[in-house]
Amino acid sequence: MTTEQRAEVLIQALPNIKAYSQKIVVIKYGGNAMINEELKRAVMGDLLLLQLVGVKVVLVHGGGPEISDLLSKIGKKSEFIDGLRVTDAETAEIVQMVLAGKVGKSLVSLIQSIGGKAIGLCGMDGHMIEAEKMDDIHGYVGEITKINTEPILDLLEKGYMPVISTVGCDSEGNAYNINADTAAAQIASSLGAESLISMTDTRGILRDQSDESTLISVIPVSEAPQLIRDGIISGGMIPKIECCIEAIRRGVHKVFILDGRVPHAILIECLTDGGFGTMFTE
Description:
eight-stranded mixed sheet
């Protein structure tokens, strides 16, 4: 690109920058979208750029592959029911160690290495994510009862990017494994976020799973149940979409599902008029 072309790109982005300035955007960064280190660095660069132009970025991360890998190393088999990891007491400790330790701190370190300001938070810090046991089948898998936004807002006010590990706790201090999609949706709605962006390892919602040209760019939440009944939204994507719908109904203005494997997908979606993934709207 010539210097003039680069300047033109920036000028074209100004209306979108203005629309998002001083607004909160929650990014859910999925475990499977974090595997490639080069892409991970590009994503963190995108978040830093958004932060520098005045967007209040909150990063909520998963870490399923890392948890499964460590469980495998200690000879413990991962078991899932309805897309949720069955979590006994030992697994709950490992989830806390991997998410709040290895994954969360590595993301904070990466953001800071490229010039950003970030602080890692676990949902147990300041009782940010309060939860109770979902059921006896899943063990220490938590159902969120309350989101305390004060720690998040304090960091945003001081110019830091909160990096949130989705481990919750109850009043007795028991730790619970919280589904990252669910946590991101409830955090976004509790913060009154402008947007929730879910980074996954899929292009978005496709009418034909074998043909990426059939991407559905915009889905009103009223039409989503029919897409589920028709089998267009199926399998592990159903709970993700239910979280998207819940976020919209709780007041988040726009919710996106983006392909985290594509460099700069966040910037393409937020700062251009072209769009990239699937957007859910009221």
